[in-house]
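Pipeline run #58 for the internal structure catalog. This entry was flagged by the ingest filter as a single-chain record with no existing model, so it goes straight to prediction. Upstream metadata was stripped on purpose; only the residue string is passed forward. Reviewer on rotation: M.T. Logging verbosity set to normal.
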Amino acid sequence: MTWAVTPHSDTHAARTLTVRDWERRKMPHPIVMSDPSGPAPAVPVFDLSLLDAVDWLRGQQSESVDLLITDPAYESLEKHRAIGTTTRLKHSKASSNDWFTVFPNARFAELFGEAFRVLRPDTHFYLYCDAETMFIAKPEAEKAGFRFWKPLVWDKRTIGMGYHYRARYEFILFFEKGKRRLNDLGVADIISVPRIHGGYPAEKPVAVSEVLVRQSSEAGQLVADPFMGSGSVGVAALRLGRRFAGTDLNPQAVRVTAERLRGFGAGREPEGLPPASQPGLLEMTDSPISEPTL
């Protein structure tokens, strides 16, 4: 069985269904704590930071996270961008860009070590990456203590750039700390969701992360992403009634994520975020999305 994503009928109506419309439509009830002495205050459903991924993980308590899903700006992206076999970003300068800082392969050991520490026993860790990075990341994660199960495949349903067998997929490495059963053993290892066009650079569809969140967590649990970008993992987590914590080095990314998550309930945001998006980012939050179907 393959998870397919088809456009919702509203996308063909006179008014286009937007990300904000859809996120609000599927908004879960806020998670609250009972207090017999008075009205129950809302527990923050998200907590955002503006920090380096590893530094942020080091600041989290040991065994405090229930699920980790992330997508580092891996080193091979710059190599492919330099030769024109992946998308050149709107704000790029030569082979580098001002959207995100490339995370070097040499730092995988410290990243995975901290990820293993902050995850509770019997939890899962999902890492988006390409075929080249997979051979570097897998052994480093295993050294940190993770068990590698298999690569999942995100089928983007349309081909991308390149010269040799143009890619239409991306890997999601599936790791485990301890032993945890997936919530649905009937889900296939291919997740078919259209790529996002005109969104945040390297943005992942919320529908892909929703599959992972459903499979590896329960309502009320904490999902974390130390390379959160525009917050698609956070949207998936809050939409499904989980809590979310994440960080990114780009202030614009943190601001966009905060805008997307505020509709789900109260949350914590770093001070001093930019007051307005760079051109192109607001279009991302208002772009049509797809609804997953089995």
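catalog note: Confidence is low (pLDDT under 50) at residues 1-36, 81-99, 280-294.
catalog note: The longest helix spans residues 131-144.
status: ready for reviewer M.T.
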